[in-house]
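Residues and backbone
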Amino acid sequence: MPAAPRAPRPRTTTRDPAELRRRLGAWVAEWLPGATVGELTVPPTNGMSSETVLFDLERPDRPVQPCVLRLAADPNAYAVFPRYDMERQYRAIQLVGERTKVPVPRLLRLETDPAPLGAAGFVMERLEGRVPPDVMPYTYGGNWLSDAAPAERAHLEQATLEVLAGLHSVPAEEAAFLAPPLPGSWLSFRSPLRRHVDEQRDYYAWVVDGRPRSPLIERAFARLEQLWPRDEGPTVLSWGDARIGNIVYRGFDPVGVLDWEMASLGPRELDLAWLLFLHRFFQDLTESSGLPGMPDFLEPGRICARYAELTGHTPRDMEFHLLYAALRHAVVMLRIGYRQLHFGEAEAPADPDRLIMHRARLEQLVEND
């Protein structure tokens, strides 16, 4: 998930860095005798969910190896999601690496037992490159992407769509672990999209448990039912958090696709709409600050046409899917807003919908007839 571009930055962990480094060093020494870990650092644009820590793996007989530790979110820091299945994330990266040409980091070690590190997690290689920033968002200007030539941005768009096309080529049956069997016979007949939306309803119910409900989010769920696709389309491996802020680029070519905690099965449009909406989210924030942003970047009509050229699948029901992307993001924003209230970083508004940063855009999508 993108980091919310607010100040001060919301708290995301209560873990002690010195204790985490001690645990990490002891764990690494168990499976790589003689190895040590360097200082831990947190990326300045680290997201708001799973914890990402950078460190160097040091061995006497080899060059220093830059690494990344991904840990399940700190449960004492009002986590964004109710569950963090790190093995599921690990297996998704592994599958994509084995079955496609999509670049993913090389995996080094999975730990499912929370005892050694304080939480389940895994280690992977750290890739050299650059990532479009979330804080401040790339649309605000003064960064490598906003300053790029139009041809360079067009190249990045095309290369990013090729990533989605590659991911969506993975046979859905090989990614069945992303949607394990459900208890109860009738539940197994739900379509992948229906199951996806039902899980979002469950997530929303968890977010507002003991907190004020969001009238806008509930209207958005109702509007989804009115727009439900007649043909949901083929089921594919869905990256889930499909956005350029989760890709490492070298030049303007992807060299690593990151952040798989929202991976699932579903229609291709889930990823396409998320890619388009997250840019729109940042563009709206930029325009509200009086800046031009990047209005011609990731333009929906052009992106959908190029995706169709790459895959032979013409995106459908994008009104539904863009609304659903905005709704999903709203539930996450609401949870992050409640986390800020939990830690005393903000005051509770009279209207909980004010915690949704893209409230105006979501209202527009709900009311669009």
Summary: The longest strand covers residues 62-71.
